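Q: What structure does this chain adopt?
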Amino acid sequence: MLSWSSTEAGDEVDLTGVADGSGGLDIDHGDELLRFATQCAERDDDALAAARAELTAATDEGFMVDAAAVAANFEMMTRLADSTGARMPSDVLESRASTIGAMGVAELTSRR
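A:
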């Protein structure tokens, strides 16, 4: 989604910086968003609360709620796809190969 939406908006996003958590988001509040998204995935309640407070302080509560809704939607979509056994067609995987490589997705394993 980030690569698609940034392309549509005419923005450049360094996905390797997003993948390794070092930054690379030249968008408004990109660093705060990256920390918030990382903490959503890490499942550390204290660190997530701190990232949520930082994002809210940099923006406002509505912005943070929207970011949390996006994170929750991605979690829901992943669980839904896993539960149905859905797999991406090979042509879709091929078209996304550079993004998959930049994000290190092929090396990820399930937390289950």
